[in-house]
Amino acid sequence: MVARILIAEDHPDSLELMQYLLRAHGYSTATACDGERALALAREEPFDLILCDLQMAKMSGYEVAAQLKAENSPCRAPLIAVTAFSMLGDSEKVLAAGFDAYFSKPIEPERFVTQIETYLPEALRAPAPNQRAGD
Ligand code: MN
What we know:
The chain is α/β, with parallel strands linked by helices.
């Protein structure tokens, strides 16, 4: 079984790109375009990993992280912030807010999925492309 990943991002192009890359590698995705929706989805479903933009409408990524930690929800997924390069000075704040890691935007399409996979248990990683067909 491959991982099911929640992507929370309010910028449509960025959301679409992350979703495209993850799906192309065989991952199952759900999307939210604001923080409230992201939190609602994370409460409903035990995702294997959550990617979360920091600056979003209605509820920021910081608030989403704080809520998920505070309510001791069934969500045990690694929580990864995706933030503009200019915000990286805030890395301590990001980790203090409860995120397990952060990636800078713009994402690097060639490396993005590999980077994500380091936060997934091996059993939930998609097979390499050359192992998918046949056998
Ligand atoms: Mn944003």
